[in-house]
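Sequence, please.
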């Protein structure tokens, strides 16, 4: 039945199925059993300290999978140490017109969702149910498409304050290719303002939590180095590398229809995986003693996870 659905409907049904599994301890145990035939696996050798945040293991659900924060406990029972919720925007917005999520090959996706989000108030309401679970939750901070760059620091700070009580860590997402002009915020003059605004917002709430900046894989290494300098100077926790790629050659491997299509490619593509792993290696060589790295891109089994860890990701 699911295979007859479009990709976004498939995705929504998967998320809502996990949400339903959270209704009782019995359904959660059934979820564990059917997923991997055993209860949740725990081994202290897998523990990770991420800027002071303790994780049971190195595996986090990347932002974009659970934008609304409705399946955190279900995903935790599948074995993930944390879930990065969002990206969360100040106001609700529908995103780009559908269809906008495509499986172009087995395990390879292109999406131009466009920060579809119910907004920070609804996400906060959804996360209320997880307050007593002690599951570390990452909050990916996004920007409404109508917000001008000069007003971006205020908007990111507003979302930070609203989501503060739920966040184990924050991630400034300035690397989605699907909001016009958003990647421009990776430039030094803008990212400094965003980091300062988010840090000030956390200071006003209580104390600073781990803060990451999520970057695009299409940045030049010179641009990455400039961003690393900013990150170190402003004492943020680290970098998330990286988001989807708009590389037309990579997209064109799957047919002329996709070569110049909007959106970003991600998933089980060898070239995309290598692109993201190489960026992690570069960051680790240049700032690995000062910044924690969360590695993203083409991770679908233990081997590809270890590849990112060996490159320098926590």
């Amino acid at each position: 039945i699911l295979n007859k659905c479009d990709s976004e409907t498939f995705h929504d049904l998967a998320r809502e199925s996990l949400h339903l599994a959270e209704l009782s301890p019995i359904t959660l145990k059934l979820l564990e059993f059917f997923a991997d035939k055993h209860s949740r696996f725990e081994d202290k050798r897998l523990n990770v300290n991420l800027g002071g945040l303790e994780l049971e293991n190195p595996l986090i659900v990347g932002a974009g999978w659970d934008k609304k924060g409705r399946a955190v406990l279900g995903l935790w029972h599948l074995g993930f140490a944390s879930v990065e919720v969002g990206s969360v925007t100040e106001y609700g917005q529908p995103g780009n017109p559908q269809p906008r999520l495509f499986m172009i090959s087995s395990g390879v996706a292109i999406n131009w969702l466009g920060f579809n989000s119910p907004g920070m108030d609804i996400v906060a309401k959804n996360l209320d149910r997880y307050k007593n679970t002690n599951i570390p939750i990452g909050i990916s901070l996004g920007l409404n498409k109508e917000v001008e760059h000069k007003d971006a620091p205020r908007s990111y700070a507003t979302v930070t304050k609203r989501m503060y009580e739920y966040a184990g860590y924050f991630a400034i997402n300035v690397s989605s290719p699907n909001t016009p002009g958003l990647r421009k915020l990776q430039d030094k003059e803008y990212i400094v303002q965003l980091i300062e605004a988010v840090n000030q917002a956390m200071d006003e709430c209580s104390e600073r939590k781990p803060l990451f900046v999520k970057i695009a894989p299409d940045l030049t290494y010179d641009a990455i180095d400039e961003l690393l300098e900013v990150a170190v100077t402003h004492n943020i926790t680290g970098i998330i590398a990286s988001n989807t790629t708009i590389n037309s050659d990579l997209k064109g491997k799957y047919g002329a229809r996709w070569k110049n299509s909007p959106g970003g490619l991600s998933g089980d593509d060898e070239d995309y995986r290598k692109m993201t792993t190489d960026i992690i290696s570069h960051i680790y060589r240049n700032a690995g003693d000062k910044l924690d790295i969360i590695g993203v891109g083409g991770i679908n089994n233990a081997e590809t996870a270890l590849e990112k860890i060996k490159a320098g990701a926590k």
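The chain has a mean pLDDT of 94.
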